[in-house]
Amino acid sequence: MIDSLFHLSLHQLRKTAPVVHCITNYVAMDLTANALLAMGARPIMSAAIAEMDELVQVSDALLINIGTLDDTLVQAAQIAGQAMSRLGKPFVLDPVGVQVSHYRLQAALTIINTCHPTVVKGNQSEMDVLLRQITQPTFVAVTTGKKDTIIAANRQEQLEGGSELMTQVTAMGCTAGAMIAAMAAIEPDPFLASCYAMRLMKEAGANAQTTVGLGTFRQRFIDYLSHV
Asked: Are 62 and 99 a contacting pair, CB within 8 Å?
């Protein structure tokens, strides 16, 4: 079913052009915004508390990424996340670096417990630490790596492919979270939305594979998203 509906979902995303609000880290903003635009989504990049309520109203999906973390971002994330949940709109949490510090782990747990994200996406180290703190996850869990694993209730999907170069380009992992949010804006099943986004991520990485250099790889990654 995933294969048969994948391209239909991409077509629907371009046709709908969902607005994806990204509360994300400074390092990731450029690649994330360009990847969303290439997919056909419309990104908004803001962590300004004063406009959170208004941005929620015009957004179809939300990404919260705690890469460059501070108290203001946590406050903005809680306001936006709670409002999205209240309105029944999807949002993705990317718990960057939760294995590094207690501050990051507590921030991620606070967002999960108060906002109830639709999807939580992280690498193996991040998800191992986070899921040990949560006895009964109510969200779709996406663990990225050489093999991506998507788990929800009694469903599981594993995706292989991509490129080793993806681990050497800053913000690739962060961009994956935004791509999941974009898909979740048009696909009501967050498990399928996560599968579609991660498959697209793998395909774009594989098609961007080049021996020229990382800069060219990054550009070809975006090019693939714009033409698929």
From this structure: no
**AA identity, residue 63:** L
- Asked whether residue 228 is domain-assigned, the answer is no
The SS3 call for residue 56 is helix
Distances (CA, A) of 202 to 156, 209, 213: 17, 11, 18
User: Can you give the pLDDT at residue 2?
Assistant: 60
How far apart (Å, rounded) are the C-alpha atoms in residues 177 and 182? 9
Q: Is the pLDDT of residue 190 over 80?
A: yes
Number of independent structural domains in the chain = 1
Helix (H) / strand (E) element for 123: namely: strand 119-123
Mean pLDDT calculated for residue range 22-45 = 96
Is pTM, for the whole model, over 0.85?
yes
Alpha helices (H) along 59-132: 71-87, 102-115, 124-131
DSSP symbols for 17-32: --EEEEE--TTTHHHH
Q: In the structure encoding, which two tokens stand for residue 117, read together?
A: 């994200």
Write out the residue range of the structural domain in which residue 151 sits: 2-222
Mean pLDDT, all residues of the chain: 94
Domain annotation covers residue 18: yes
Residue 64 lies in a domain: yes
* DSSP secondary structure letter of residue 23: E
